[in-house]
Amino acid sequence: MSKKRVYEIARELGVPSKELIQALAEMGMPGLKAVNTVDEEEAEVIRELFLEHKQAPAVEESEAQAQKLAPPKEKVEPEKPKTGAPRPPVVAVLGHIDHGKTTLLDTIRKTHVTQEEAGGITQSIGAYQAKVDGRLITFIDTPGHKAFTAMRARGAQVTDIAVLVVAADDGVMAQTLEAIDHIKAAGVPMIVAINKIDKPEANPDRVRQELAQLGYTPEDWGGDTIMVPVSALTGEGVQDLLEMILLVADMEDIRGDPKGELDAIVIESHMDTARGPVATVIVKNGTLRERDIIVVGTTWGRIRALVDYQGKRIKEAGPGTPVQILGLEDVPPAGERVELVKKPNQAKALVEERRRKALDARRVARPLMTFEDLLEAAEKKRLAVVLKAESMGALDAARLELGTIETEGVELDVLHAGVGPINESDVLLVASVEDAQPLVVGFGVKVDPKARRAADERGIPVRTYDIIYDLTQDIERAMRRLLGPEFVEVKVGEAEVLKTFDIDGVGRVAGCVVRSGRVVRGARVKVLRLGEEVFAGEIGSLKRFAQDVREVQAGRECGIRIRDYDQVQGGDILEIYTLEEVPA
Ligand code: GDP
């Protein structure tokens, strides 16, 4: 297929490159550079868009209008589709280093990926599809739990089934345990591939035993963990493993609807000097098409080309398909979700809003807390911790100590405890947990610079300790802080209701005189009638001479509207309280 530079297309069209690039950006294909190369089909898309742009130059205004009427939706988690047809399951391979993850993926690729006609450039896009008994399985090509958890770090779940590789000559090792914790946190079904059974010293039963001790009892021993002995090297058992994956996929009832709402997640991305930003996504539901306008986190673009795992251009990608996307303005991170929008302006507005929000979030260190926030915060009382220590002995000691911490109302969830320095995947693991305060702690270990960077980017606290007492004390403090500051009601004033007014569209307003202290808008109020409390609520509005005011002092008159309460009567006494924080 012949390739072209963007400036060559501009020359053919008889316009300066700058003008062509500008026009394409307005048509939803931003980020192109004059030196970028495109293939013939992409060039065709570019030519068409340019001609379209020339014919309809004044779309800006009406688009802005349309956008106002229909603001783009914020991210919503698409429901797991119950409709549609069974789609290829998405599988990730995890396990200890050197236990054979890469070899297994390579062998499956060699034996189960139908080679297209010779001459096609096979390139790795980060995922491929294997064909087993006429059905497809989508494999994520980057093994290991770091990649696995990075894909989940933004809350999206791309993997349907995890394959844990354990070498039969080595057994369960540190990263096996890590991988298990990551799979558990993701909540996806796990299949164990007991690998290297061709080796004379292989002892598959030892692996079964070690896993059983961890609570994963093999099926043939009466448990419910599927374990398949394989040799990634010779290919023995690999067909069985693949069939098991399909079986689990059937049990999980994994479906996708090509006509349904788009659910597509980035698994890998990079900047290609010739092609610009490139992202591989896996479509889980719905369909992605060439020329679709998409928003991916804080970047966007019009799809210039879709490339499949065999390097072929495709027009559309349906459920279960891994596909490379060309045409984004910027490189999105793994784990980001792809959203479809109708117009370039909608995409731009959404991206701009997100960038602004991200900036604001960094600027506003501590937002003002409303009472509702307080109640909400009270529901998230979980501290999600990854604990690392220098040795097994130190780890056991630290775990024992942590076990003794008890703070009523707060849960301590140790997602993973392991030996070795704090690494990036530790950070990603805690980052992937929702509804919990994340924390990574180390006992006598160092923090890998990449882990430090990942933590800084995500605002995740990472602390290391040399003294176990300091560690437990900090965890205890963090848990207590999660309970939120303690608040007490402090009485600040009292008012007497002189008469009441019923106002259309507002409700009952009490005309009062402040007898003592002060009345504060938004404060808590108790209504006393003949000395009995008849209602407790909040002051909705506070007025003096028809003016909204924040506060009214003793001796003055004012109008008080109590939120959601219209039964206030003349003669009632209103006690005013504010919530004040009790210093820890
Ligand atoms: P990874 O770190 O888990 O990706 O492991 P690799 O796939 O790179 O494999 C590590 C080493 O184990 C390599 O030298 C492989 O050739 C070897 N290996 C992998 N699978 C098998 C197997 O089934 N049998 C034997 N004998 N060697 C294997």
Task: Looking at this protein, list some descriptive labels.
34% strand; 584 residues; binds guanosine-5'-diphosphate; Arc Repressor Mutant, subunit A; Rossmann fold; 6-stranded mixed beta sheet; 5 domains; alpha+beta; 6-stranded antiparallel β-barrel; single chain; Elongation Factor Tu (Ef-tu), domain 3
Instruction: Return Rg in Å.
Output: 30 Å
Q: Which stretches are low in confidence, meaning pLDDT under 50 for 5 or more residues running?
A: 57-79, 117-121, 362-375
Global outline:
globular
- Based on DSSP secondary structure assignment, what is the total number of beta strands? 31
Give the helix proportion (percent range).
25-40%
- N/C terminus separation: 70 Å
Mean pLDDT: 85
Strand order of the largest sheet: 5-6-4-7-8-9
Largest sheet entry: 6 strands, mixed
Class of secondary structure makeup: alpha+beta
**How many DSSP helices?**
15
CATH-defined architecture of the largest domain: 3-Layer(aba) Sandwich
Structure commentary:
- By secondary structure, the protein is an alpha+beta fold.
- The protein folds into 5 domains: 3-69, Arc Repressor Mutant, subunit A, CATH 1.10.10; 85-255, P-loop containing nucleotide triphosphate hydrolases (Rossmann fold, 3-Layer(aba) Sandwich); 263-356, Translation factors (Elongation Factor Tu (Ef-tu), domain 3, Beta Barrel); 371-484, Translation initiation factor IF- 2, domain 3 (Rossmann fold), CATH 3.40.50; 487-582, Translation factors (Elongation Factor Tu (Ef-tu), domain 3, Beta Barrel), CATH 2.40.30.10.
- It is 30% helix and 34% strand.
- It contains 15 helices and 31 strands.
- The strands form 7 sheets. It has a 6-stranded mixed β-sheet with strand order 5-6-4-7-8-9, sandwiched between helices.
- A hairpin with a 2-residue loop joins strand 5 (127-132) and strand 6 (135-140).
- Helix 1 packs across helix 2, helix 12 (392-403) runs parallel beside helix 15 (468-482) and helix 13 packs parallel to helix 14.
- The N and C termini lie far apart (70 Å).
- The model is unreliable at 57-79, 117-121 and 362-375 (pLDDT under 50).
- The structure holds guanosine-5'-diphosphate (GDP).
- Guanosine-5'-diphosphate (GDP) binds at residues 95, 97-103, 143, 195-196, 198-199, 231-233.
